[in-house]
Amino acid sequence: MKSYLIAILFMFGIFIYSCDEVFEYSPYVIDFEDHETNLTQKNIIALSLNNASDTLTIALTGDTHRFYDEAERMVNKLNTDFDIDFLIHTGDFTDYGIPKQYHWSNSIFSELNAPYFVVAGNHDLVSNGEEGYKEMFGNLNFSFIHHAIKFIFINTNSREYEFNGQIPDLDWLRNEINPGDDFEKVVLVFHTPPFDADFDSDLEDEFMNILHNSDNVLFATHGHLHSFNYSEPYSDGIPFVNTASVEKNEFVRVKIYNNEFTVDVIDF
Fold first, then answer.
1. Residues with Cβ < 8 Å from 245, sequence gap 6 or more?
2. CA distance 81 to 25
3. Are 259 and 218 a contacting pair, CB within 8 Å?
4. DSSP bridge pairs for 57
5. Is the distance from CB of 214 to CB of 32 less than 8 angstroms?
6. 180: which DSSP letter?
7. What is the pLDDT of residue 27?
C-alpha cells in the first residue's frame, strides 16, 4: 500500500511539473529582460551623448523578418567599416510579432556601435506584436531632434487596424511636423508608404498635404517593398527613400550636411 501511494505521488508530481511547463511556456509571453525594454528612450539618450560632427551619417535598413544571418553580417560590416551616428530600421523587425523574434533581432542590432531606432512594420503588429513592440521600444509614434533635424517615426500600417481611419494618426503628425525653433528640417520614417494598398487610401491625400504644407521635409524613408528605390512619387519635391530588406545584402547610407543629403547603397 505504501509503495502504491508513493507511486501515485510520484506520478502526480510529474503531472504537476508537466502542467507547469505547459502553462509557463507560450510563444506569445512577453518576458523581456530589463536591458531589452524602453529601447527608444535609451537610444535617444545614448545619441544625445555622442559628439556630433558637421556631417550626420545614418544607416537605413528594414524588413529583417527572419533574415538573421544577413542582419548579423550587416551589423558586422557597419561596425568594421563605417562610422555612423545611428541606424534607422523601417519596420518588420520581426516576421510574426512574436516576442522571441523581437529578442532575436534586438540581440543582433544591439551589437551595433551606435544607437538604433525602429518604426513598427505590419509584421511587427501580428497577434500581440504591438504589445511586444511597446514593451521593447515604447510608443509606436515618436520623435527626437538631432543635429537640428527632427526625426518623426509614425505607424502607417492601416490594414492591421482594419482601415479604421485612425492610422496613421494625422493629428499627431500635424503637431509634430509643425516648424519649431529647435529644428530646421524633418526626416519622416514609416513602414507602409502612402501609395501602397496597405495604407488607408482615405487618408493618403491629407497625409501628403501635411508633409507638403509643412515645407520642411528633407526626405521620407520607408520599408515594406523590400527593394531600394529613390524617387519623388508625388512629384512635389519630397524624396522617398525605400530601404532594401537585409535579404538583399545591402543597406542605405545617408549623409546629411547643411540641410542637404546624399544617398548611397552599400553591399555587404
1. 62, 63, 64, 65, 67, 92, 223, 226, 227
2. 41
3. yes
4. 255
5. no
6. B
7. 86
CB 158 within 8 Å of CB 167? yes
pTM score, whole prediction? 0.90
* Per-domain residue ranges of the chain: 2-267
Q: What is the pLDDT of residues 60-97, one digit of tens each?
A: 999 999 999 999 999 999 999 999 999 999 999 999 99
3-state secondary structure of 247: helix
Rounded distance, CA 52 to CA 62, Å? 25
- At the fourth CATH level, the homologous superfamily of domain 2-267 is Metallo-dependent phosphatases (3.60.21.10)
Q: What is the DSSP letter of 251?
A: E
Phi and psi of 18, rounded to 5°?
-65, -40
Among 174, 180, 120, 121, smallest CA distance to 150 is for: 180
* 146/132 Cα distance (integer angstroms): 27
Q: Mention every residue, 6+ apart, whose C-beta is less than 8 A from residue 160.
A: 122, 125, 126, 167
Would you say 214 and 178 are in contact if contact means Cβ atoms under 8 Å apart? yes
Instruction: Identify whether the C-beta of residue 109 lies closer than 8 Å to the C-beta of residue 79.
Output: no
Query: What pairs with residue 189 in β-bridges?
Result: 153, 221
C-alpha 72/C-alpha 52 separation (Å) is 26
**What cell does 142 get?**
515618436
Is residue 218 within 8 A of residue 20, CB to CB? The reply is: no
Low-confidence ranges of the chain (pLDDT < 50): 2, 4-24
Cell of 127: 497577434
Q: The cell 494625422 sits on which residue? A: 170
Nearest to 190 by CA among 156, 159, 224: 156
In this predicted structure, what is the pLDDT of residue 25?
Answer: 64
CA 239 to CA 236: how far, in whole Å? Answer: 8
Give the strand pairing for 116-118 and 86-89: parallel
